[in-house]
Specification:
39% of the residues lie in helices and 12% in strands. It contains 15 helices and 13 strands. The chain has an eight-stranded mixed sheet with strand order 3-2-1-4-5-6-7-8, sandwiched between helices. Helix 1 runs parallel beside helix 7, helix 8 crosses helix 10 and helix 8 crosses helix 11.
């Protein structure tokens, strides 16, 4: 190892290395917490000045990151949030946790990664380690990030170090936090791998070093594509079995009693979150570059993308059965978050459901105990609605209530008691015994 690498390794061992986290969202902020818990001082960077100001006031905008913890870290000088990218020079290790969305043509949008790399490149100094955590396709670290960082003349592997370690967050799951999930680590070279592994081994419960950055990048794509494909399978079965009068949820419960060869996946109104709806298309895009097709993956993506329309068709059927048109009908969506018990609305199928219902002339409202107002979304055109209180009067005034996200906070007996009709996309009402004639499965 070079002297620069040895110095950084020593600083990591002594906990004197300063960690910089770029992107203080649902991935970056938990990573800040894990690094501080491991004894490192952290600089947090974000281009959103409102986020930075809220953090400086000791406020949290992520449910599972307590405001009290932020305030304590600020007071003790363990955490400094900033929008000043020139301060990237002060960090010894820089972790990139920025979004990697899709373009309108479902191609990878690496503009946030590229912009961050340019910002780092402006202040890059000898001895720094840069790690990309954002989910992306194999080749991004080497072909996109490396050339930008090397523009200033510093050489990777000797002057600075570069690695990839895919984020593995599971928001809302109390059994898994950033520091308790094993971390896959791939380095551009041996020194980069050793340094990245040295850092993460002090922060998380276990590291999994792999032979290259491309293997680490492909690992993340495989994890999420595996889930997307299996969810598509049960979504397709749900539609088929419903036509046959068979409850797919009961089928899954029966199948998962097999102690080998089966893992339960569950249907829903569509995919949500930043990873699963997006990552398989990264792989499809990459395959096209190599003149190959990923028909299986693309089919799974199409099935999952069409689930909101299937749910809306069930709303049509439910209202039609009552002699009503969807036009001018009042429809309330329960749950705007993409998954249970989180305040994260990214890529939530609730937004597509609202879009479709509004298109057909429905009067749409929503309730979510974790999201008081709908944020603006890049991919959806939905009004900035406020969450409506679930009073008996409100529920009884809706022509149809659609369960999109089955938050624990919901009292399903109460909902069924007061609602006229309910479309259940999550099997949330399985234990409700009174008023089942009001429930439609979707």
């Amino acid at each position: 190892m070079t002297n620069l690498a040895q110095n950084l390794l020593h600083a990591l061992d002594q906990r004197t290395a300063r960690i910089g986290v770029v992107g203080l969202g649902y991935v970056g902020l938990p990573l800040v917490r894990a690094a501080i818990a491991a004894g490192y001082p952290v600089l947090g960077f974000d281009v959103d000045p409102q986020k930075v100001e809220r953090l400086r006031r000791g406020e949290s905008y992520i449910k599972h990151i307590p405001a009290e913890w932020i305030a304590s870290c600020l007071k003790e000088g363990k955490f400094q949030p900033t929008a000043e990218m020139s301060r990237l020079r002060e960090a010894d290790v820089i972790l990139i946790c920025v979004p990697t969305p899709l373009s309108e043509s479902r191609d990878p949008d690496l503009s946030y990664v590229e912009a961050t790399a340019r910002q780092i490149g402006k202040t890059l100094r000898p001895g720094q380690l840069v790690v990309l955590e954002s989910t992306t396709y194999p080749g991004t670290t080497r072909d996109v990030v490396l050339p930008v960082l090397a523009e200033g003349g510093l050489k990777a592997g000797s002057d600075f170090f570069l690695a990839y370690s895919p984020e593995r967050e599971d928001p809302g799951n109390p059994q898994h936090s950033a520091n308790t999930i094993p971390k896959v680590v791939g380095g551009l070279d041996d020194a980069s791998l050793e340094l990245a592994n040295a850092f993460y081994s002090r922060v998380v419960v276990q590291t999994v070093p792999v032979s290259s950055v491309e293997v680490a990048e492909a690992c993340k794509i495989l994890e999420n594509t595996y889930r997307a494909v299996n969810i598509a399978l049960v979504n397709e079965l749900k539609v088929l079995l419903a036509r046959m009068g068979i409850d797919v949820w009961e089928v899954i419960d029966a199948a998962k009693t097999k102690p080998f060869g089966f893992q339960a996946f569950y249907p829903g109104p569509g995919l949500g979150g930043h990873c699963i709806p997006i990552d398989p298309f990264y792989l499809s895009w990459l395959a096209r570059k190599y003149e190959l097709s990923t028909r299986f993956i693309e089919l799974a993506g199409d099935i999952n993308a069409n689930m909101p329309r299937y749910v809306v068709n069930r709303v049509f059927e439910c209202l039609n059965d009552a002699g009503q048109s969807i036009k001018a009908s009042k429809v309330c969506i329960l749950g705007a978050a993409y998954k249970k018990d989180v305040d994260d609305p990214r890529e939530s199928p609730a937004f597509r459901l609202m879009e479709l219902l509004l298109h057909y002339g429905a009067e749409v409202s929503y309730n979510d105990p974790h999201i008081p107002r709908l944020p603006a979304m890049r991919s959806y055109h939905v009004p900035s609605l406020e969450s409506q209180p679930l009073t008996p009067e409100f529920l009884s005034g809706q022509d149809c209530v659609v369960i999109c996200t089955d938050h624990t906070a919901y009292d399903w007996d109460y909902v069924i008691q007061h609602a006229r009709r309910v479309i259940d996309t999550r099997n949330a009402t399985r234990d409700v015994t009174t008023g089942r004639e009001k429930i439609w499965k979707a």
